[in-house]
Amino acid sequence: MTLLRARGFEWVMAVFAEHLVAGPVEVSAFHEVVDVELATLRGLDDDALDTTRTARDYCNDWVARQWVNRALVDQVEQYSLTAATLDVLAFSDRLVDRRSTVSESRLQQILDAVARLADESNPDPQARVDRIDERIAELEAQRAAILDGRVPVPPDARLHEQLGGIMDLARHLPADFKRVADSVYAMHRRFVGEAQDVPLGRGEALRGFFADHDLLAASDEGRAFQGLMRLWGDHRRQASLRRDIDDLLRQDFAADLSPEQRRALRALPRLLVESAEDVQDTYRRLSQSLERFVQQQSDGDRDLRSRLSRAQSAAHALFGHRARRSSVDVQLGAQLPDIQSVTQVQLADPRLRERPADVDDVGWDAGTGLTPEQMRELGGPALDALHRAADAAVRRHDVGRPSLGDVWAELAPEERRPKNVVGLLHVAVTRGATFLDGTDDRLEAVRTDGTRVVCTVPWGVLPAADVPPDDPPAPRDPDSDTDSAREDAA
Question: Where is the composition biased (Basic and acidic residues) (predicted)?
C-alpha cells in the first residue's frame, strides 16, 4: 500500500490504470507516455511534481519500489504492473463503485463453498454418498418443477447482482495470476543470484530450485494456476464457457448491460489466456536460465563473478555516501596529481616508449645458406610469369584460344615447377577459361632437384584477347595503295 501513501499517487495511479493495466509496454514507449503526462502536469503547475526528474527517473523509482516490473522479453525490455499494484487499482475501483459486495449471490457462493469443503474433507464414504444422493434428489425435484412450469425466472435485479459478483471475481484474476508470475520471477532472480554467488554444485542448486518450485505449486496462487491450466487444457470446458457467455448475453436482462460490461464479459476467456501466458512466459525465461546454468556454469565463471561482486560492494561502500564526498589519494609521483575523477587517470607502461633495438644487418647466406633466388623458389606460384606466358600463348595461337598446355609451353624451363601448375589453374580461372568435363591435360614439371613429375589437370582453353570495339580501323593511305598497285603492275 505504499503507492497510496506516496506523494502524487493520483497521477501515478492514473498512468498505471491508463497504460499498463492492459498488459506489458515497451520501455521506450512507456517513457514517452510518461514524458507527455509530465509535460501536461507541469503546465498545470502541479506542486507534487519534481521538475528536475525525467520519465526515466520516475520509472526507475517505481521499479525500485516494486510498483512496476521491468523484464527482458524476447530481447525487448518491457514494463508491467506488479500484483500489489493491481490489487491497489482494484481496491480503488471498489471505492469508486458504490455497489455493495454483500449480496445474496455472494452469500450463496459462500454457502456452496462451505458445503463443498465439508463434503471433500469428510473421510466417511457413506456420508459423502448421502450428500450426493441429496443433491441428486434436489436436482430431480428442480427438473420436475421446471417441466411443470412452476419455477419462475429470477427478476432482473437478482440476475444483475449475480453477474456483478462474477465480474468482481474476474476483476481479481489478473492480480492473482500476476502474483504467481511475480513469485516465479522472484524465484528466477534468486536462483540466478545464488547460482552466480554461492559456491554450490549443480546438484545442490537444482535441488534448491525444485524445492522452491514445489513451495510455489503448493501455494494458493500456484494451485489456482494449475487449475487454470487444467481448465484451458480441456477444450470442451473452453467451448462450454464461451457458449454460456453467448447464451447469457442473448437473454432479456442483458439488454440493460453497458457496452463496457458486455466487452468485459466477452473478454473473460481472453483474460484467462493472457494471464496463463504471462505466467508461462516467466516460466520459459526461468527454464532458459536453468538450461544455461546447467550447460555453461563453471568454477572459473563463479570465481570471476564473485570477485566482481566484491569489487562492486567495496566501491559502493566507499563512494555510496551521498552526504559527503569520498575520494582516494593516488600517489603517482613526487606530488599528488590534480584530478577530479578516476576516469582521468590512464595507466601507461614506460617500456612501451622505449626505442626497440636495431636489427642486425646480416647477409643472405647467414643462417640459411640460401640465395634470394633459392628463397624465392620456396614461395608461392610465379603469377606474373604465368600471366606473361598466357598473353604470349594467346598471341601465338591461330584463333587466339590456347590450351593450358600451350601456356605451359611458353614458360621458361626453370619456371615449370609443380607449384606453378596450381598457379596456372588460378590464372586460367581468373581469365575465364573454359574447362571440359572428363578430359585431362598432362603437364610435365621439373622439381628444384632436377627430377621430373607429370601433373594431370582439367583440359581447358583460355578466351581470345578482347579487341576494344571503340577503336576504329586504321585509315588507309591512298599513296601506299597507289605504290602497291604500281608494284603489282610491274
Answer: 473-490
Report the greatest alpha carbon distance in the chain: 145
Smallest CA-to-CA distance from 176 within 215, 216, 225, 214 is with 225
What does the pLDDT look like over 451-483, one tens digit per residue?
899 998 888 888 887 644 444 444 445 454 444
CB atoms within 10 A of CB 401: 16
Which residues on adjacent β-strands are paired with residue 452? 446
Q: Which run of H or E residues covers position 248?
A: helix 235-249
Residue at 374: amino acid letter? Q
Residue 101 burial (C-beta neighbours within 10 Å; 0-12, 13-18, 19+):
exposed
Element of type H or E holding 151: none
Which tens digit of pLDDT belongs to each residue from 331-366? Answer: 555 566 677 666 677 777 777 778 878 777 665 555
Instruction: Name the helix (H) or strand (E) containing 73.
Output: strand 68-73
Measured in residues, the chain has a length of 490
Q: Model confidence over 57-116: pLDDT tens digits?
A: 889 888 888 888 887 777 788 888 887 888 788 777 766 655 555 556 667 777 777 777
* Domains with residue ranges and CATH for the chain: 2-96 (1.10.10.10), 115-150 (no CATH), 157-301 (1.10.132), 372-461 (no CATH)
Residue 86: all three cell numbers together: 493491481
Spatial contact of 136 and 145, defined as CB atoms under 8 Å apart? no
Of the candidates 75, 84, 96, 29, the residue with the CA atom closest to the CA atom of residue 56: 29
* 3-class SS of residue 16: helix
Q: Which amino acid is at 166?
A: I
Amino acid at 160: H
Residues 6+ apart with CB under 8 A from 94: 101
Burial of 268 (0-12, 13-18, 19+ CB in 10 A): middle
Degrees (nearest 5) of the Cα angle 289, 295, 299?
100
Distance from chain centroid for Cα 202: 25
Q: How many CB atoms lie within 10 A of CB 293?
A: 17
Distance CA 41, CA 39 (A): 6
> What are the φ and ψ backbone dihedral angles of 282, each rounded to 5 degrees?
-65, -40
Within 10 angstroms of residue 458's Cβ, the number of other Cβ atoms is 15
Axis crossing angle, helix 220-233 with helix 268-296, rounded to the nearest 10: 110
Cell reading at 191: 536462483
Using CA atoms, how far apart are residues 179 and 184, in angstroms rounded to an integer? 9
Cα–Cα distance, 227 to 278 (Å, whole number): 15
CB 67 within 8 A of CB 3: yes
